[in-house]
Amino acid sequence: MRSIFQICTAAALLLGLVAWVIGPSIHTPPGVLVPEDPVQVECPAHIVAQLKGYTVTAVATYVIRGRMLHMKHYWSDGSDLVPYDVALGWGPMSDQTVLDRLDISQGNRFYFFESEGSLPLPQAEIVSHSSNNHLVAANSSIANVISGLYPGEIVTMQGYLVNVTKPDGFRWNTSLSRTDTGNGACEVFYVEGIQAVKPGR
């Protein structure tokens, strides 16, 4: 049986390798990179997909262009349908000056921000210019792009905000607001198109 020391050493080496491969997020000069807000248009509820036993029902069309703030890969809690959550920022939350003062993380299907000192923006402004997105890929090509997203990239996605159900009682409803917080405040996003580019391109 491996000792605790061997297990910890192996874990540290693995984390080091991941950090070396991924590297730091893209750093840009000060200034807003994405000035526009997401565009949401509510639509009659209709099924857009039946995937892996889940029924995916659209409730609004959605287009977002944002700066990649953070991405989290999940291995449970609906991960067969939504393996990745992506935190995106626009307006002041795409400005390097602001992001340099924030520590951004994700966990338990939530997105978090904190600062060692005072926040660089009012909390309400941070909330209204960033979002945590549960991404449902419409096909394998889009899934491949999502898995390769990199912090600092400018990402454009279009598709639907959706509610997800399963016969066993599983239910995941999307937020339809950019100003809510807490449980239920994340966007469940069925992505039909995606493009990611380095800033300035």
Topology:
Layout: H1 4-22, E1 39-51, E2 54-73, E3 84-89, H2 96-99, E4 103-107, E5 110-114, H3 123-128, E6 130-137, H4 140-147, E7 154-165, E8 171-172, E9 187-197
Parallel strand pairs: 6-9
Antiparallel strand pairs: 1-2, 2-3, 2-7, 3-6, 4-5, 7-8, 7-9
Task: Please provide a written account of the structure.
The structure is a single chain. The protein is of the alpha+beta class and 201 residues long. The protein has a single domain (26-197), classed as OB fold (Dihydrolipoamide Acetyltransferase, E2P) (Beta Barrel), CATH 2.40.50.140. The chain contains 4 helices and 9 strands, in the order αβββαββαβαβββ. It has helices spanning 4-22, 96-99, 123-128, 140-147; strands at 39-51, 54-73, 84-89, 103-107, 110-114, 130-137, 154-165, 171-172, 187-197. The strands form 2 sheets. A 5-stranded mixed β-barrel has the order 2-3-6-9-7. A two-stranded antiparallel ribbon has the order 4-5. A hairpin with a 5-residue loop joins β7 and β8. It is globular. Mean pLDDT is 90; it is low at 1-22.
Question: How would you summarize this macromolecular structure in one to three sentences?
Answer:
With about 200 residues, the protein is an alpha+beta fold. The protein has helices at about 5-20, 95-100, 125-130, 140-145; strands at about 40-50, 55-75, 85-90, 105, 110-115, 130-135, 155-165, 170, 185-195.
Radius of gyration of CA atoms, rounded to a whole number: 18 Å
By secondary-structure content and strand pairing, the structural class works out as alpha+beta
Q: Tell me the major beta sheet.
A: 5 strands, mixed, barrel
Sequence stretches where pLDDT stays below 50 over 5 or more residues: 1-22
Query: How large is the count of helical segments?
Result: 4
CA(first)-CA(last) distance: 52 Å
**CATH fold category name:** OB fold (Dihydrolipoamide Acetyltransferase, E2P)
